[in-house]
UniProtKB/TrEMBL annotation:
Residues 1-63, 120-194 form the PAS domain. SMART domains: PAC, PAS. PROSITE patterns: PAC, PAS. This is histidine kinase. It is an enzyme of class 2 (transferase).
Length: 249
């Protein structure tokens, strides 16, 4: 137990430390003498102490261990850290519950990185709302729309506030005769590094209308998943003008 980087702990039924390794001391920031007999209420605020109590109570009641409970601790020096903990029931030789034990891992750096990525994603989405093109982000595995900016929502007839276009398969927006073009383009967007030309397809609006769009896709990542960002422009009026010109010749 002293060789592992994660903290190992054992507590009695009330939650007081009765055994732990050196890594546990390093995570919480107290010496072994200080930690022995210490209760989680001494290094957590009320909200997190309540979460620990609920986790212990659930394990005690069901007898089933729990994993990846996320709590925030307050170290001796006053700094706050995020931890990921497992909880299992500790029994005596007669099988009676006598406490709890588990592994604790400091996930502060990971948590802060996730928060930074979320903030960066929010800033990025805010920027996409200002572009004159319709932006649609499609999950690479499910082909479902996971984001659409206001211009895209308006283009396809969806409510930009309710985001009611999110969750729909991108092929449901495409004219049946043009689906093959979109699928081919989508695959190239994912795996072809060279910048490609935009492609024109007929798209369908929410109310069943039809419009022509040009689309260009870029491989990206959205909410931790592989995706394609489609930049679209409504060229319906241009196509109508071209058809009218051809008809007049």
């Amino acid at each position: 137990l002293e060789d592992i980087e994660d903290g190992y702990y054992e507590v009695d039924i009330p939650g007081n430390f009765i055994f732990f390794n050196d890594a546990m001391c390093g995570i919480i920031g107290y010496s072994k003498d200080e930690m022995m007999g210490m209760n989680n209420r001494q290094y957590m605020d009320k909200e997190n102490a309540k979460k620990v109590y609920q986790a212990f109570n659930r394990v005690y009641t069901t007898g089933k261990h729990t994993e990846e409970s996320n709590w925030e601790i307050i170290r001796k020096d006053g700094t706050k850290r995020f931890i990921e903990a497992s909880v299992s029931l500790k029994r005596n030789s007669e099988g009676e519950p006598i406490g709890f034990r588990g592994i604790i891992r400091d996930i502060t750096d990971r948590k802060r990185m996730e928060e930074a990525l979320q903030q960066r994603e929010q800033d990025y989405l805010a920027l996409l709302e200002t572009t004159f093109e319709g932006i649609v982000v499609v999950d690479a595995e499910t082909l479902k729309v996971v984001y659409g900016n206001r211009r895209a929502s308006k283009m396809f007839g969806f409510d930009p506030i309710l985001k009611d276009g999110v969750g729909i398969n991108i092929l449901d927006f495409v004219h049946p005769e043009d689906k093959e073009v979109v699928i081919k383009g989508f695959i190239e967007d994912l795996y072809q590094e060279e910048r490609r030309q935009r492609y024109e397809v007929r798209a369908k609006t929410k109310d069943g209308g039809e419009l022509w769009i040009t689309a260009f896709g870029t491989r990206t990542e959205f909410q931790g998943r592989l995706a394609v960002l489609l930049s679209t422009i409504d060229v319906t009026e241009r196509k109508k003008a071209e058809e009218a010109l051809r008809a007049s010749e």
